[in-house]
């Protein structure tokens, strides 16, 4: 039996070797035919564009010599026509690149082996590989350079014939050039700082925008966008301005210092609910929920400040609850998603993240400046109450600005926008008829398609059906769309927010107990931590994500968070300022890196149905982070009953356990993170 088994195994090996030899021979023939037919067709398209540009160049030179300003607009439009045709070619290439990526992903899933890495590695630089046409496009760059240079030259000559008061001194790039550059960036899947910040905000961007999106969207209003970003900034300032003085405020009202966890966390508790109703409210209006948010925050900060003279810890907590009920971050995200044109959405998303980071740094910094004490009409103004009064005044000014400057998008335009974006997945298949044809149309491909017909039909039904494009209508429906990898990434988000909240919320208590720091020292320390956010994002977005896979950065960041938490424990040696500062800095920076990379991955793997509607991906991530803050602040308050000497280790232990669980979960789902 053993000999028979060995003989059977040898026959199977020989049979597979025969299949492999036949496969290599067939592959060689297919490569020759495809290289001659399809590659030449695409090169012919690029050659046609180049010849058109050459002809336009001769007309351009003649026009400049004749100084005929009347023909300049006509020449500019001719160049834009070439740009639109180039854009169609880029859409064509991107469609095939997306198809190739999905096929390779299915191979990885079926084989249980990273076939994608082998495929790209062996074909990216092969002289006869068609993959080079997707990855290497020097000719396209040359065409873009010619178009942008000639359009700018025509613009300069046109302005030379007109008064300088009729045009701005700085000419803006032509929209068609921006669209082409954006398409090239998507095609190469390049990652820069701006894209990294935009993904950090978890605001969806369409994978294949239509050429009609080059026109300026009528719903876009710059001042309204600026008001949304200002709301984001002020809310983050409002969140962190009370952190340095929360413990002293609690003590002045007769409560324990560790009640600062409840004071800080009460805002997060209310935000869990406010995020949902604000997200639902944004389906009907943007102006009304923003006004409501400002009024509630004005009332909340006023109650927070009055709690000192009323000598009531309950008024203090109610004031912070009101502040949480005014959290309009869901509105801010939704406005960028629905009302900002595609060519500006990534910049607006980056502005959203930058405003949040700046507010996080400015909150404690502002608190450090409010170290004074005086009374006006028996109302006390000191380091505890001034943060509330300052923020109440800031929200009053913002409310007036909002009322006078915000422009509500019309309901019809919003409905039409949602319908167009819902159907965008269907519209790309019929893009300019001939453009959407597959890259390989030979008989060999038809035979291959017959072998994979069942799989492709399943993919088309999943991606092109109207049902798959509709937004979810309930939290349970949203939960059912979460794949294991998405659940793990939401858990990672929970972990990092928990670790950061423990670090920030208990900083005033820990530093006062171990190092006798004043509120101003704590505020400066927290402000310095907040100022690291943007530089860290610059390094990660511009360098690390271009050098390593995002999932590698994700896992490395989790390990660094783990190391930072371990170094924060007070075990044997006396607790020192260098140990606390270095471990806190390591934990905070690693968590910031982890947050950006995690949300960037989450924006790619989350279902398209979670890109719109009330229960969107941004809401889910916000709820996960807010819930983490609630649990962390509750942990600080409960750990305070065991005494100040045990507070540090008691709050760090859950962070350590949750971090270990997230690392294990990441390792299990590592291969599914793309």
Automatic annotation (TrEMBL):
The keyword Transmembrane applies. Belongs to the major facilitator superfamily. Phosphate:H(+) symporter (TC 2.A.1.9) family. Residues 413-468 are annotated as: Disordered. This is SPX domain-containing membrane protein. It is a multi-pass membrane protein. It comes from the Eukaryota. Residues 450-466 have a biased composition (Acidic residues). It comes from Sesamum calycinum. Residues 2-121 form the SPX domain. It holds the Pfam family MFS_1. The chain crosses the membrane at residues 225-243, 255-278, 290-307, 313-331, 352-374, 386-404, 490-516, 522-541, 553-572, 578-602, 652-673. It is found in: Membrane. Residues 416-446 have a biased composition (Polar residues). Keywords: Membrane, Transmembrane, Transmembrane helix.
